[in-house]
Structures are given as structure tokens and as C-alpha cells.
Specification:
Blueprint: E1 5-9, H1 28-40, E2 43-48, H2 68-74, H3 77-84, E3 87-88, E4 99-102, H4 108-111, H5 116-127, E5 131-135, E6 158-159, H6 164-169, H7 180-186, E7 190-191, E8 202-205, E9 208-211, H8 217-233
Parallel strand pairs: 1-2, 1-4, 2-3, 4-5, 5-9, 6-7
Antiparallel strand pairs: 8-9
Helix pairs in contact: 1-8
């Protein structure tokens, strides 16, 4: 078996548009997959649309959101340095990874959907049978990805992502630039969500894996590791 290489893509956006309200990466949506991959000895690359600093949503640092793993990484100077020095998507547009993972956070709603470099990376990897994974608002990075035949990648695909009801519960309906759940449905996705909002849900559809919300981070990491290990065995 060869060394598994994964690309984790995170946001550069730290403010909601036309406000002073801070947003960014939702920390646990990075830390759980990072921790699981690190334990397995995978090669991990963290990139963002522009490269450089990754703003972290202060809401994800509150007591209710900062679980044990996330707290340990947040208090790790080495990990914090990684968040200050992500590489740009242009720098990773060529190499092939075994998985491309889109971390969430409201910041992604601004710089993920229309990033053509990201679309190209996702499309190329998906066509080559590599795993594409996205969680929460990071699923918005799949919205405008088209396959070679011009059809949207997510059309008719079972998937999940942050629901509009959850947006209401998070008190962010007035701040967000669009309704993610509605946008996914407009693209023809077979959108699914947990019966109870703010609870874990992960959907696997071939080599596409999606998680609904931050509370899916732990399960998402487990599912991804399982799928990567299986894919590596089948090489």
C-alpha cells in the first residue's frame, strides 16, 4: 500500500459581507479529519483559495463547540502556525491526492462556490475516482462543479449539508449570502438531512462523502478513514 495523500481546503474569509461580524473556518470541521488522518500517518496538505491565514469562527471556539480534540489542537502552537500559513489552491492544482476535503464554516459561502481553481481540482479528482468529501457549509464548494459532459457533479447525488432550519437555529439567516439547502436542491441534488437538526448525519454516494453540520465532524472522519483504507487496499 502506498502513502495516502489528502488535501484539506479551508476558507480565507473572516467577515460576513458588509458587516463587522466575524466568521471563518468552523474549527472542529478541520480538527477531526486532521487528527484522524495524522493518526494514520497520512500525508496532509492544508490549502485555501488565496493561501496564508485561515480565520477561525469565534463561535466554534465557544465551550459548547470546542470539543476535546479541537481544544487540544487550538492550544497547540504548531497547529496554530499551520492556520497562519496555508498554501494557495493554485499551488496544488496539479498534484493528485487520494481525497479532497472541503472544511466548513460560514466563510466558505463567500470564497468556495465560485472558485474556478477549486472546481477544477474537485472535478479532476472526482473523475479519477478519488474521494471528494465536504462538510456543513463546505458543501457549497460543490455547487458549481461540472463534469466533462456539462452536468453538475451533484445532480441526482444523495448528499447533505447545513440545513436552512439549522441556519435559523444558528441565528445566521440574515447574514448568509444564500440558502445552502435550497441551492443544493436547485442544482438537482438529492438533499438529505437528519430528522433532528444539529445532530450528526453523513451521506456516502460512491466517492462523494458529505456531512451535514459540525456535529457530524467525528462521524465524518471515521467514514472517510474507512473509505480511504478500503480504496487503498483495492489499488
Amino acid at each position: 500500500m502506498s502513502l495516502i495523500k489528502i488535501l484539506i481546503i479551508v476558507t480565507n474569509t473572516g467577515l460576513y459581507r458588509d458587516t463587522d461580524l466575524r466568521t471563518g473556518l468552523w474549527l472542529s470541521e478541520l480538527t477531526h479529519i486532521y487528527h484522524a488522518a495524522k493518526e494514520k500517518g497520512y500525508d496532509i496538505t492544508i490549502a485555501s483559495p488565496k493561501g496564508g491565514n485561515i480565520p477561525v469562527d469565534p463561535e466554534s471556539l465557544r465551550v459548547f463547540a470546542l470539543d476535546k480534540i479541537s481544544k487540544e489542537y487550538w492550544n497547540d502552537p504548531g497547529f496554530r502556525k499551520l492556520l497562519d500559513s496555508s498554501i494557495s489552491l493554485e499551488e496544488v492544482a496539479g498534484p493528485q491526492f487520494d481525497m479532497v476535503y472541503l472544511a466548513g464554516g460560514h466563510g466558505t459561502m463567500y470564497d468556495f462556490p465560485d472558485d474556478t481553481t477549486m472546481q477544477s481540482i474537485i472535478g479532476a479528482h472526482y473523475e479519477n475516482g478519488k474521494i471528494i468529501a465536504a462538510i456543513c457549509h463546505g458543501v457549497g464548494g460543490l455547487l458549481n462543479v461540472k463534469l466533462p459532459d456539462g452536468v453538475y457533479l451533484i445532480k441526482d447525488k444523495p448528499l447533505t449539508g447545513f440545513s436552512w432550519l439549522e441556519e435559523s437555529l444558528a441565528s445566521r439567516k440574515r447574514q448568509v449570502p444564500f440558502n445552502l439547502e435550497a441551492a443544493l436542491k436547485e442544482r438537482g441534488a438529492d438533499y438529505r438531512k437528519a430528522l433532528i437538526p444539529m445532530t450528526s448525519k453523513v451521506v456516502v454516494s460512491g466517492n462523494l462523502i458529505t456531512g451535514q453540520n459540525p456535529f457530524s465532524s467525528k462521524e465524518m472522519a471515521k467514514v472517510i478513514i474507512r473509505e480511504l483504507e478500503q480504496q487503498n487496499l483495492n489499488r
